[in-house]
Amino acid sequence: MVLVANEPWLDDDEQKAWRSYLLMRKTLETHLARHLQREFGLSESDFEILVNLSESETGRMRAYELGEATQWEKSRMSHHLTRMEKRGLIRKEACEARYPEIVLTDEGLAAIKACAPVHAGRVREFFIDVLGKERVVALGEAAAEVVDAVDKHQRTDCPPEVRGCG
Fold first, then answer.
1. What gap in Å lies between CA 91 and CA 101, rounded to an integer?
2. What is the pLDDT, as a whole number, of residue 99?
3. Cα–Cα dist 11/15, whole Å
4. Strands (DSSP E) along the chain, which ranges?
5. What is the C-alpha to C-alpha distance for residues 72 and 64, in angstroms, rounded to an integer?
6. Fewer CB within 10 Å, N or C, the chain?
7. CB 102 within 8 Å of CB 63
């Protein structure tokens, strides 16, 4: 294993917090995704697309807008949208611009309406209620600061090939 001597290491408490965060995120995401799949036949990726479309004013978004919202690469977005279209959850509509508009179908809307309340209930049970109001607020503030730090890094000194979403 190659170690970079000039990089600051995490102390024991920092390492424990980081690893606990990773385990919590992975455990919660996996558990929620399994419920979506087994109860509603939706993948976590399906759910993410359906949420974005259902929250847009018109139930439609350009493919590149979905890519920005999900932080997915173009290839992943294209392949996944094709699979969702075959299942009737979305449809692609040509428009004057280069990329098609992605439209939430009646079937897609029905799917998100069926699973979203159940999913939100599980998020409440395993995350919101476990943490409590004060820690949820603190976590939200901390998360925003981390996202801002990453965004700043991407705009300033991050190599283009690392920035993603391309």
1. 8
2. 75
3. 6
4. 60-62, 90-93, 101-104
5. 10
6. N
7. yes
Angle at 99 between CA 82 and CA 116, to 5 degrees: 50
Please report where in the chains the tokens 């290491």 appear, as a residue. Answer: 9
**Angle at alpha carbon of residue 150, lines to 146 and 156, rounded to 5°:** 145
Give dist(CA 42, CA 44) in Å, integer.
7
Q: Mean pLDDT: which of 1-10, 88-97, 127-136 is highest? A: 127-136
Burial pattern 111-144, b for ≥16 Cβ within 10 A else e, equals bbeebeeebeeeeeeeeeeeeeeeeeeeeeeeee
Give the integer Cα–Cα distance in Å for 14 and 9.
Answer: 9
Answer for the pair 68, 165: CB distance below 8 angstroms, yes or no: yes
Residue 7 pLDDT? 74
pLDDT for the residue 1: 43
Contact 33, 44 (CB under 8 A): yes
Tell me the two tokens of residue 107: 């079937």
Q: 117, 42 in Cβ contact below 8 A?
A: no
